[in-house]
Specification:
single chain; alpha+beta; Cyclophilin; eight-stranded antiparallel β-barrel; 7 helices; 8 strands; 21% strand; globular
């Protein structure tokens, strides 16, 4: 238990130094999860906040839950793509990729879903929470060789202790992370699902943007460098 706490503190120290400015609380029927949105990915940050303001995520569902991998919420790929087929003359609505190597798929990372497009652009209304599992040096070495990318010592330590999904790095945009409610995220990722990875009992959420006062109070609680 002590080592897990130390690792989580290490992760928070790493990101707190960025002095992120926007936070969102996912109010789920399993409890609350608080997300910090990265200022390094402003297009995704602002698109998510805009979608929340429009109510596009009100009473959304975690509709694809794969244990020890991801918990996906919002619209399904099929729903988005079928709707787009109805208006083929319209340009596809996507968020341009904002892939920052320093922002990686550690456990608790917030990512944006996408289809298999060459630009790696993201859907407007699909998010996922990374879960994954602890990685070995050999596994990380293989990922580095495959992607032509080298992890920093801090990133390797986080992947080896806290865990995550390094095979998604550099292919999907990570634009935030969990700072409170990791136990709720774990509970969601552990629910029974059917053969299509849909939870047998609906897991819903409504995101609420924290006020400046709430955000400032939360930042005070996070470890600083």
């Amino acid at each position: 238990m002590k080592s897990i706490f130390t690792t989580l503190t290490f992760v928070l120290i790493t990101v707190a130094s960025y002095a992120q400015s926007r936070f969102v609380r996912l109010e789920t029927n399993k409890g609350n999860i608080t997300l910090m949105l990265y200022d390094e990915t402003p297009k995704h940050r602002d698109a998510f906040l805009k979608s929340i303001k429009k109510g596009l995520y009100d009473h959304a569902a975690f509709n694809r839950v794969i244990k020890a991998f991801v918990s996906q919420g919002g619209e399904l790929d099929e729903t988005i793509l079928d709707r787009e087929k109805l208006s083929p003359e319209k340009p596809l609505a996507r968020i341009p990729a904002e892939i920052v190597p320093e922002l990686f798929h550690k456990k608790g990372a917030l990512g944006a879903g996408r289809n298999d497009n060459l630009e790696h652009s993201s859907y407007l209304t699909q998010i996922y929470l990374s879960v994954g599992k602890p990685q070995t040096d050999a596994e990380l070495n293989a990922i580095e060789k495959k992607k032509g990318h080298q992890y920093s010592p801090k990133q390797r330590e986080i992947y080896k202790t806290l865990g995550g999904i390094p095979r998604l790095d550099l292919d999907y945009t990570v634009f935030g992370q969990i700072v409170e409610g990791m136990e709720v995220a774990d509970a969601i990722n552990s629910v029974p699902t059917d053969k299509n990875d849909l939870p047998l009992q609906a897991i819903t959420f409504t995101p609420k943007v924290l006020s400046k006062k709430e955000s400032a109070k939360l930042l005070e609680k996070l470890p600083k460098n």
